[in-house]
Structure formats: structure tokens, C-alpha cells
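Quick question, first post here. What does this chain look like in 3D?
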Amino acid sequence: MPKPSFAAKLIGGLAVGAVVATGAVMGLVWLFSRSSMGSDMSGHGWTALLAGTVVSFVVAGVLSTVLILGRRNGFDEGAHEIVWDTHHSDEES
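> Answer (accepted):
Ran it through. C-alpha cells below.
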């Protein structure tokens, strides 16, 4: 059996972390909704909460991936490079 790569371990760890964080969010909502409001949330409310949390994690993951890949491939430049270009362009000519 081949040894899993670092990327596979990282993705697996992040997936487990996302599941744990989702469970924690839903548990906190359940605790606060029962103690402060005195009523339970409907099944549709729990479905909407779960869907919103999952979509938020997916969007954050996709945007982070685009940011990292863009930086690695040279499609993004650091802020210090932009400041250097705007303030020192006349010295290079």
C-alpha cells in the first residue's frame, strides 16, 4: 500500500476539521436556541444552517486554493513589489 502524500494528509485533516467545526457550530446553535428562545428550530431551519455552513466552508476553501495557486504561479504580486514599482520607477530609467 503506497504511503499517502503530504497533500492527501493535509486535505484529510482539513476535511476532519471542517466536520468537527460544523458539528460545533450546530451544537452551539442547539444549546443557545433551547436556552434563550425556549423553542426548538424546525427541520428546515437545521437543514438551512447545515447547508449554509457547508457552502461557507466550500467557498472559503476554493478562494484559498485560488489565492495559493495564483501566488505560486506568479499571477499575483506581493504588496511590497507594487509599492517598489510605483515609488522607484523613475530610478530604473
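The chain is about 80% helix and 0% strand.
The mean pLDDT is 78.
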